[in-house]
Design a protein that fits this description.
The chain is an all-alpha fold and about 160 residues long. The chain is built from seven helices and no strands. Helix 3 (about 40-50) packs across helix 7 and helix 6 (about 100-125) crosses helix 7 (about 135-160). The chain is globular. The two termini are about 15 Å apart.
Length: about 160
């Protein structure tokens, strides 16, 4: 009996959501909170690239709403950014598969940076927050973690024969 593909995909997304919701200890410097990667975006982009017929814009919207709920941000803020990430992944998935991990990491940086900028724009309109370049640090750490995440998720996909 084959393990349900959808269950594996959602289990990895759930793990990413748990990593997103995990709080750092109070005595950790604020810089480390800026360095947290966008776990849900990384996992979402992998699955969009690997199985675009199963993971797409609706999944991205749902995961984004869950991230909004978990982090206490404006409802739809992450959802909008995740839909952008899924759109880029869906429109380029055939090319992304052929790129090296370094090239893919650059695409991860660009897409997550765009999503972060959209989130900043929404925050600036609604809450009047000011600009800081620290907003882009999660995109940098996400890109640096991409090769590791890609390799781990690909091994999982092959183990469970998700196609």
């Amino acid at each position: 009996m084959k393990f349900p593909d959808t269950l594996v995909i959602w289990a990895t997304l759930l793990l990413a959501l748990l990593l997103t919701a995990a709080r750092l200890p109070a005595d950790v410097p604020e810089l480390f909170s800026w360095l947290r990667p966008e776990w849900a975006a990384i996992v979402l982009l992998y699955w969009v690239m690997a199985v675009p017929q199963r993971v797409g814009m609706v999944t991205a919207w749902c995961v984004g709403i869950l991230v909004d709920s978990l982090t206490g941000s404006l409802l739809g803020q992450h959802a909008l950014g995740f839909v952008l990430i899924a759109f880029v992944g869906l429109s380029m998935y055939e090319r992304l598969r052929m790129y090296s991990l370094l090239q893919q990491a650059f695409i991860v940086f660009v897409t997550i940076a765009l999503a972060r900028l959209i989130g900043f724009w929404v925050e600036a309109l609604v809450r009047g927050v000011g600009w800081t370049p620290m907003i882009l640090l999660p995109a940098v750490t996400s890109a640096l973690l991409w090769p590791l995440a890609f390799t781990a998720l690909r091994a999982l996909r092959r183990k469970f024969r998700i196609a």
